[in-house]
Write a structure and sequence with these properties.
Mean pLDDT is 91; it is low at 1-16. By secondary structure, this protein is mostly beta strands. The strands form 8 sheets. Strands 1, 3, 4, 6, 9 and 11 form a 6-stranded antiparallel beta sheet that branches. Strands 2-5-10-7-8 form a 5-stranded antiparallel beta sheet, with no helix packed on it. It has 2 helices and 35 strands.
């Protein structure tokens, strides 16, 4: 019983994996015939000269989306363009719709180059619906034609199809992704399709002015801004059905970042104080928000009013960003400002800072400060600002005083120190 269940399961899997696939070698629904009708005896009197599928006509007339063959005194026929009927081992079918005049005045003969003609009968008339007929042929050859003719007087013909049907397995032809975006100027890239069918895969582009594709390798070369569809096509082979797969390719303009201020920002301040400068940033064609960073040796002395500027629809309007410079040491300082967004070329500027001890020297009273066992002592009111600088101008201590006598450990300090409490300044040596 278990063996039978397994066998049935395998049969089910195989059945589900296969399918019927129909390939049409000729189709004509006669939709280009817009005059006349096929429902009255007076509605098909205008001659028809043929179309691309059936260019050769003998006694044919326009009948409103169908063709009438023959007349009361003569038979009629239509002959197709040349068709290669050697595919699928020369096995194919011909189907068509037919109905007669007020009575079925004869039969329909279908003749294929080099093969025995087949004749079919019908009963439908002008007052009823069309009958569908399907004929099977073998031994088809290349450069063949198909002729459909009445054996007597008149009949209406519609929806002629020449086709073959095979049973095959799905090849699962597919691309890894169905959409790719590239920036104009991007070098060539390749995304190939995969398939269970080992047969050749060919590639094409729907808009070769936007991007071209190598038909064999699938390598794509972006050319212009726009959209194109890359199609992979694989013919039926090795028991697999023919198949197509596509992906959309979008070529976009390059993201561009702009810093309106073309010179490097330069700020001057004094130790313990701050200086600011405004820069103006903008961007177009972004895929992500605009980011700003500060890096470098003295990056900790500089800050920005914002580090991210949100893009809307890919664009950042002109936005003012404030750089703040707060030196803790006299001298010159530098940092690097970088504007960045994925896919865009970074914009980089050097930020320059210059600091002096002006704020230390802007005092109006002397501070009575002294050393006691490596402790710095002075009197102050509660909440006054305490700043201590070494001889190079480095800001070594920043605090807030207590009311009365204050004692600050100086064990980690040495040399000449400037002690500033509020607007009072004193000097000590450790």
């Amino acid at each position: 019983m278990r063996k039978l269940t397994l066998l049935l399961t395998m049969i089910c899997i195989i059945t589900l994996a296969s399918k019927s696939q129909t390939t049409y070698m000729l189709q004509d629904d006669f939709s280009t015939i817009t005059s006349g009708d096929n429902t009255s005896t007076s509605g098909s009197s205008s001659a028809w000269t043929g179309d691309t599928s059936f260019p050769t006509i003998t006694t044919g007339y326009q009948a409103g989306g169908a063709v009438r063959l023959g007349k009361s005194s003569a038979v009629g026929s239509i002959t197709s363009k040349t068709i290669d009927l050697s595919v699928n081992g020369g096995n194919f079918n011909i189907s068509f719709d037919v109905k007669g005049w007020t009575t079925a005045e004869g039969s329909i003969t279908v003749t294929v180059t080099g093969l025995t003609a087949q004749t079919v009968t019908y009963t439908a008339t002008i007052a009823t619906s069309f009958e569908n007929k399907v004929l099977t042929f073998t031994g088809g050859t290349a450069n063949s034609t198909v002729t459909i003719a009445t054996t007597a007087k008149r009949a209406f013909i519609d929806n002629v199809n020449v086709y073959y049907t095979i049973t095959c397995n799905a090849s699962k032809l597919a691309f890894a992704t169905d959409s790719i975006s590239k920036i104009i100027g991007t070098t060539a890239f390749t995304q190939t399709a995969t398939s269970l069918n080992s047969g050749a895969i060919t590639y094409s582009s729907s808009a070769t002015d936007i991007a071209t594709v190598n038909a064999t390798t699938g390598e794509v070369t972006p050319l212009a801004i726009g959209k194109t569809t890359i199609t992979a096509t694989q013919a039926s082979a090795n028991g697999y059905c023919d198949a197509t797969a596509i992906y959309r390719l979008y070529i976009t303009a390059a993201p561009t970042l702009t810093l309106t201020d073309v010179t490097d920002p330069s700020l001057t301040s004094s130790v313990g104080s701050s200086a600011t400068e405004i820069i103006n940033v903008s961007a177009v064609n972004l895929n992500t928000d605009l980011g700003l960073t500060i890096s470098g040796t003295n990056a900790d002395l500089f800050t920005l009013s914002q580090y991210t500027v949100t893009q809307t629809g890919g664009n950042v309007p002109n936005t003012a960003v404030t750089i703040t410079y707060t030196p803790t040491l006299a001298g010159t300082h530098t940092a690097t400002l970088t504007m960045a967004s994925i896919g865009a070329m970074n914009v980089v500027r050097t930020i320059n800072g210059n600091a002096d001890l002006t704020s230390v020297n802007s005092v109006i009273n002397n501070l009575n400060v002294y050393i006691d066992n490596k402790n710095i002592k002075f009197n102050a009111e509660a909440g006054e600002t305490l700043d201590i600088y070494n001889s190079t101008g480095q800001h070594v201590i920043h605090s807030v005083t207590n009311d009365g006598l204050n004692s600050i450990s100086g064990s980690a300090l040495n040399g000449v120190l400037l002690v500033k409490v509020g607007n009072r300044l004193g000097k000590i040596i450790l």
